[in-house]
Design brief:
Number of helices: 13
Helix content: 55-70%
Distance between the termini: 58 Å
Shape: globular
Strand content: under 5%
Number of strands: 0
Structural class: mainly alpha
């Protein structure tokens, strides 16, 4: 079988920038590894790859194998390339296929930092939530209870940019109540980010939540959640 992932990685390496790599590694932390290649460059690599291979017209099985190979790579740019390919070219008639694949990514611990986690949430999971809300919320309900920090975080972050955030208030309350009580910083900040966006709709809900859960709230959560409160 053609090693499609290797082909992508070779093109990424050809564009590597040591200074940018060092900056990103220091910025993201979590012992990530980077080639120092930006999103615009990765996007162009993916576009050329698709033009040359037409992989999006292949079977879902082959595409999943290719995407898994990218996501399991230790370098950030390979993981981001997987997300970009799905965003740009993923086509399947099975509504749960993306959730099955991303669940596998978390369960195999191929996502281990906030940068990749949040890119996945914003680029893939929020659109999935808006398109298939019932199916997606059901999956997120399981993720929310996960001991895997990043899987738990990804259960809530997609709601922040949802087009239908108001419809999900009961779920947001449930998931936020679960995550705010955890010790991990990135579970708590997920709550702050979603509350910040929901404050545009209902400030009382946000202030009530902060008061009720004050024993678990950090200053960082308060800062994020109240960013827009009081602004005109």
């Amino acid at each position: 079988m053609i090693d499609y992932a290797k082909r992508i990685i070779e093109n990424i390496i050809a564009n590597r920038n040591a200074d940018k790599a060092l900056w990103l590694e220091n910025y993201v932390k979590h012992d990530i590894k980077s080639f120092g290649v930006g999103i615009p460059e990765i996007r162009e690599i993916i576009k050329k790859f698709e033009k040359d291979t037409q992989l999006s017209k292949s079977t879902t099985k082959l595409q999943v194998e290719f995407l898994n190979d990218l996501m399991k790579n230790e370098y950030t740019e390979a993981k981001l390339a997987a997300i970009l390919f799905v965003q740009l070219y993923w086509k399947t008639n099975k509504a749960d296929e993306l959730l099955k694949m991303t669940t596998n990514w978390f369960d195999n611990e191929w996502i281990t930092d906030w940068n990749v986690c949040d890119w996945l949430c914003v680029r893939l999971l929020t659109p999935q939530l808006d398109k298939e809300p019932e199916l997606t919320v059901t999956a997120f309900s399981e993720w929310n209870k996960s001991q895997n920090l990043w899987k738990a975080r990804a259960s809530l972050v997609p709601f922040a940019q949802s087009k239908n955030i108001q419809r999900h208030i009961i779920t947001i309350l449930q998931f936020s109540t679960e995550l705010i009580k955890r010790e991990e910083r990135f579970c708590k900040t997920a709550v702050g980010w979603v509350l910040r966006e929901y404050s545009k709709t209902d400030t009382n809900f946000v202030t009530d939540f902060l008061e009720k859960h004050k024993d678990w709230i950090t200053k960082e959560v308060i800062k994020n959640a109240t960013k827009y409160i009081g602004q005109k």
